Amino acid sequence: MANEPNSGRTFRFRSAGFSLVELMVALVFISILMAGMAKVFQSSLNTFYASGETLSSHRRNLMAGEMVYDDLNTTGMYLATLPEPPSGFSTTNPPFSITPNKTLTLGITDPNIPVAQNTVTFDELTLYMDQPLPFEGTNQDPIKGNDEDLPAGTPQVNKVFTLQLKDTKQVAQVKAGMKAIFKDAFHPFEIGAVSSSSPTTVTITTVDKPQDLAGAPTSTGDAGDSSHLSGASVVIVVPAQQVRYTILLKNFDPSAPTKLIPCLVRQQGTYNAAAFTPDPALETIIAENVSGFKVYLSMDPSNTVKPMSAVWGGYQSAATDWAAAGGILSVLNSQISDAGGLGRAGYKLVSNANLNWFRDIPVTVRIDLTTRTVTARTEYQSASPGGRAFRDTTQSMVLVPRHFGLTLN
């Protein structure tokens, strides 16, 4: 068997594997499948980024809204001039005002982004308050005798008080020119000199008469009794502070100086009758990529019959002056005069002649803050397929500020 001769047959062996045609067909199908998977992956990735950017806009709006809310609730808080409103306000710089429809060009050069998104239209909000420091002290001096009493309206004459505070950081914040208000009689003293004998105590010396800061509203004097209880709480107040919310272009990338980002900025400074004069050291960026900041006023925000422009003063108004015809104040006056529909009889009409009008009227304030996504995307531009746009997110806030309509002084 082993030496069986060859029968003459020829055997052909077929090699294992795929032919070139089979490989090409397989590659075509795999390519189609991969293209579909890539499309799904890209769509999922875009949705992920878009959702993240939208949530980021919401967070920016909420954080910025909280600060605006706090400032609105302290607007008109006249702690340093009790028991009367400050005098010295000017019509050129009222204590509460809105400059509507200011514009800012962003300088975007990308032709794929709509021209309308190259301009920001916003309102500028200006507020006035006496700003208390975020802590209180405790009077360490004993009760003084009646011989220390002064007639009402008489300025204090260099009285010295020692206050107990929490730590050295609080001690460092107490400065001359501020007011110390003793809560046992809610009596404000003008601080003339400050010294410290320990890390947690501060000694203040009152001045012989109110030395109001240059350009700031004045009071009639530190009236009343200079005697105060030992252990009485003392509030330290920075008087005559003016705050403005506006939108400014800021650059955060030194390598790209032409890339400017619109930011909602909080500015603060001591009141000046001639003009708002911010202190650069107190400027704070509240929100980035802001595409709108609108402020509306209303005496009847619950009205659902009238159009929005009649309910909210400034809504869809093109006025650039809040006292202009058809502007914010005219809408308020229309609502006040409409005693039959709103029952506002007895309220004084609003005007720049009455600079403390907001203390007489419980007017409702509405803030619309709009921020945009950081990146312009094609999916945000439905009106022009193939182009790119930013997505806007608007957060609204409605409140009656705490001191509006509070006619205590």
Structure keywords:
409 residues; alpha+beta
Task: Explain this structure.
- The chain is an alpha+beta fold and 409 residues long.
- It has 5 helices and 12 strands.
- The chain has helices spanning 20-74, 168-173, 308-311, 328-337, 339-342; strands spanning 97-105, 119-139, 160-164, 179-182, 187-198, 201-206, 233-250, 261-270, 284-288, 290-298, 364-372, 392-399.
- The chain has a 6-stranded antiparallel barrel.
- A hairpin with a 4-residue loop joins β4 and β5 (187-198).
- Residues 144-156, 209-215 and 220-224 have low confidence and may be disordered.
Spatial strand sequence of the major β-sheet: 2-3-6-5-4-7
Round the mean pLDDT to the nearest integer and report it.
80
Helix content: 10-25%
Radius of gyration: 34 Å
Number of helices: 5
The first-to-last residue Cα distance is: 128 Å
Outline: elongated
For the biggest sheet, the summary is: 6 strands, antiparallel, barrel
SS content category: alpha+beta
Low-confidence segments, given as residue ranges, are: 144-156, 209-215, 220-224
Give the strand content.
25-35%
Q: Give the tally of β-strands.
A: 12
Would you list the SSEs in sequence order as H and E? Answer: HEEEHEEEEEEEHHHEE
